[in-house]
Amino acid sequence: MASNPPASRCSRRAFRPSTRGTWLTVALGPAIGVTEGTPTMFDLSIQLGFHLKGRASGFGFGLLTEVMPGEAGTAYEFGGLVVWDIQPLERYGFYITPGVALGYFGFTAKDDGGDSSSPTVSVAAKGLTLHIMLELKLSLADRGMIFLRAGGMDLLLASSSSSSSCSGTAIWFKALAGGGITF
Fold it and tell me: Per the domain annotation, does 3 fall within a domain?
């Protein structure tokens, strides 16, 4: 008759360091407008990337895509991502990950022109975005991960195609939670 291993042994196995260097993650949470006129929006973030060493710690890079729907319109970002996964505890798959992304930002505004029965959509702003983030990650059985993007901030430099308030600088603070797979 087989016996069950001790709980501590199972815990070490479940949260062991990841040996897989490629990741795909999805995160959800609020994007809170910090600067005047910057709306608070819902944020859906997707990352795809890999580490140069082929395991989950150290330097990595990839792609970041974000979509932020809101009452005033929808914002979207596409950019390159650079991260550094720091593993403070050698025996466990816990990582502290600072990162930065640089890319394109676009905002499509909803404009009903005074007639809410037939709203139109137009590109209100586009520009450059700098995304700064800090994540706390936990590896799950060397196949997946859960994480909290405890600090995330977007700095946007935009130009507007109209006289809307979308031109200039906008800052969002983001707090996202998510999960993903490693392969």
Answer: no
Nearest in space to 63 (alpha carbons), one of 16, 94, 104, 112? 104
Residue 94 lies in a domain: yes
| pLDDT tens track for 70-100 | 888 899 999 999 999 999 998 899 999 999 9
Residue 11 has pLDDT above 50, yes or no: no
The tokens describing 19, both together, are 């040996």
In the chain, % helix, strand, coil (3-state, to 5) comes to 5, 65, 30
Provide the pLDDT for residue 10: 46
Q: How would you classify the pairing of strands 41-51 and 58-69? A: antiparallel
Residue 117: inside a domain: yes
Number of structural domains (the chain) is 1
**Contact status, residue 101 vs residue 79, Cβ threshold 8 Å:** yes
Does 6 map to a domain? no
Per-residue model confidence as pLDDT tens digits over 145-177: 999 998 788 888 888 765 444 567 889 999 999
Please give the residue range of the domain that contains residue 160.
20-182
Query: Distance between CA 46 and CA 179 in Å, rounded?
Result: 10
Give me the count of residues in the chain: 183
